[in-house]
Every structure is written in C-alpha cells, then in structure tokens.
Specification:
10 helices, globular, TIM Barrel, 373 residues, 14 strands
Length: 373
C-alpha cells in the first residue's frame, strides 16, 4: 500500500514505488461523508493538485496533478500495474455505518466512488471498513459491496472495450472481527481479500507480543496467528488464490519489559508515531535481532534499554513467501511502502525475489486501464 501523506515528512513519492516488482498499488485513503455516503479524496493537494517536476504550472488548467498523476505515469510505463483507491482505513472507520445502512447511502457511496475511478484513471476500489460491529452492520457491508460491484460493472461495460474493474477489501486477521463478517455472502462481489495479518498487539494490549506471527504460540507471546485466520477464510469459501497476505513494514515497540508476552510500561519513541518504527530504522543500535522459525516471527531486544520491538525482517518475509506458495495464496501486500529499506535490505524486493521475480509463476500480468475522461 501507498499513502498520500508519505509525500510530506517521509518524503516518499509515487516515483519511489518499485513498480517493476509489484502488481497493484492500494492508494490510501479516501474518506466518506458519514451522513450521505459520498466518497471524496481526503487530501486534494497531495492527491490531485501538487505539481511535480515537469508539470506545467497553469492555474487555469483542470489537468490532473499530484500523486494520482504520477501513479498514472507509472501505469503507462508498467502496463501490468493497477492502481486502486482505498477507502476508509482506521482514521475514517466510523464513517461507514450510517450510509451503509440505507439504500440511498449505499448508492451515493457506490456512484461517487466509481466516479473517482472514472475521473482519475484508476483500476478499481479497495474498501477498508475497520470493522462492522454487529450482524446488522455485517449485512449492510454485503449490500454495500453489491452496490459498488454493480456500479463498477456498469461503468466497465459502458467502455468501448469493456474492462473488469477490481473490488477488493482490507480484511481482519483477529477472530473477534473476522467472525463478525458474512464472508460467504461477501465473497461473490470481491476479487481478492487483503488480509491485514499484522497489528496483533498494540499499546493497549495487556502485555507485549509478536505482531504478525504466522503460527500459534502456546505461551502469551501472541494473541492471534495468521494460519488460523487464513484457514477460517478458506473454510467460508474464499479461494486461497484470492487471499493476499499482509506483511508489516514497521515494528511495534514496547518499553520497560523483559520480552515477548510479558508486562511493559510505555512504548518506544518510534519513527513518526509513538511505538511504531519504520522497518528501515530497525534493528536499533544496541538491540539484538532474533528469528523464530517455529512461530514465523522476528524481533529485537535491547537488554540495556529493556525495549522489545516486534517486526518482520528478511528471514521472516522469506519464510512467509515460501508459506504463500505452500498455501497457494494470491500473493503479498504491505503496509506501507514508505517504511521499506532500499536495495538488498528491502522487504518488498525480498518477497518479490522469493516468489520468483519477474518469472514467478502466477504473477498477475493482466493489463491496466488508461481510460479517463
């Protein structure tokens, strides 16, 4: 995934995305009017207005600028690269429930979202509702997906060369959230499921833990595991090849602790947010890095500072890439690209190579669309 606001302090731009090594960009996040359901860009300066090098400066022009123009240029250079607008996310999570609960709200959501796809030359939509809270909201989510799928199909079939626009969702790996979803009913409308297989622990957790472990633990070192989540989705009818494994490009830090599954007091300073470090900053100086193949985790611990940081290193992502192939999953996705290291230390590059690189079996080379008004 790539987020618009990475162009600010992080100084990460669309041109920095390794477009030759990925198949899809989930561009985060669009917002939703919590009453009407209208979907709109949350940062127009970053999304459509910011001039980049080479852009003509013409205040009277209605041309597209910003990150979305740069992504369009990447699409022209990489015909396999598809860009989806991701709607919602944690920040805007509360804005789904009311519009999803009415016919008019769902219609407004669908039509406004598809209008953005049309006007910005995108390839589809990714919906990130975190999370439906009860049976009623779960049913409304199904109806919302149906409305969006129908609107995408109407637009795609109206083109001189019909095109299948993608509809994906960001889906939870925690059982209290995924068991709330009507997965079988949702599945008929979704092209693939982006499993957020991270954030298993955070600053409100009762103890430290691993945030993205593949396998279950017998101790208190992690509350959830990815294997159980994947098997649950498959049991509800989701084809393995339609599940995309989410991998964190960040670390969760816990202070004043003796290690995983133990009490802590406070969180680490972080790169941009308290308790969260970019992967490229890890391991911190003085910390010792560990890899546990049995759990499918890596972490670092500084005995002097008593700081525990859970994150995926290259050893773990290589293990996860092998597991993706074993489980016949659809691939991997990341939150988020600006936090990655460069060169041989890059997690994205490591997974790309572990899955076979450009010669990898099953790499999605279906063409993108360059259609816009």
């Amino acid at each position: 995934m790539a987020r618009a606001r990475a162009i600010y302090g992080r100084q990460f731009f669309p041109q920095d995305i390794p477009a030759d090594k990925i198949t899809h960009v989930l561009y985060a996040f669009a917002n939703i009017n919590p009453e009407t359901g209208n979907v709109f860009l949350s940062d127009e300066w970053a999304d459509t207005d910011k001039p980049f090098e080479g852009d003509p400066i013409d205040d009277a022009s209605s041309n597209l600028y910003g990150c979305l123009k740069q992504l369009y240029i990447l699409k022209k250079k990489n015909p396999h690269l598809k860009v989806l607008l991701s709607i919602g996310g944690w920040k805007y999570r509360a804005n789904f429930a009311t519009p999803a609960g009415t016919v008019s709200g769902r219609s407004t959501f669908a039509l406004s979202a598809v209008s953005l796809v049309q006007n910005l030359g995108l390839d589809g939509l990714d919906i990130d509702w975190e999370y439906p809270a009860d049976v009623t909201q779960a049913k409304n989510f199904v109806l919302l997906l149906q409305a969006v799928r129908d609107a995408l199909d109407i637009y795609g079939n109206s083109l001189s060369t019909p095109y299948h626009f993608l509809l994906t969702i960001a889906c939870p790996a925690g059982p209290s959230n995924y068991k709330q979803l009507l997965i079988t009913e949702m599945n008929q409308y979704i092209d693939f499921w982006n499993l957020m297989a991270y954030d298993y622990v955070w600053y409100k957790s009762p103890q430290t833990g691993h945030q993205a472990n593949l396998f279950p633990a017998n101790d208190k070192s992690t509350p959830f595991d990815t294997l159980t989540a994947v098997n649950y989705y498959i049991s509800k009818g989701v084809a393995p090849q339609n599940i995309v494994l989410g991998i964190p490009i960040f670390g969760k830090a816990f202070d004043a602790t003796a290690g995983a599954g133990l009490p802590f007091t406070g969180v680490g300073q972080g790169s941009w947010d308290l308790g969260v470090y970019d992967f490229k900053a890890l391991p911190l100086a003085g910390a010792k890095e560990q890899f546990d193949e049995k759990l499918g985790v890596s972490y670092s611990y500084d005995a002097t500072k008593r700081e525990f940081i859970s994150y995926d290193n290259i050893a773990v992502v290589n293990q996860k890439a092998a597991w993706i192939q074993k489980m016949e999953l659809g691939g991997a996705m990341w939150w988020e690209s600006s936090a990655d290291a460069i060169g041989s230390k890059s997690l994205i590059t490591s997974v790309y190579l572990a899955l076979g690189g450009k010669n990898g079996l099953g790499l999605d080379n279906t063409p993108n669309t360059l259609t816009y008004p």
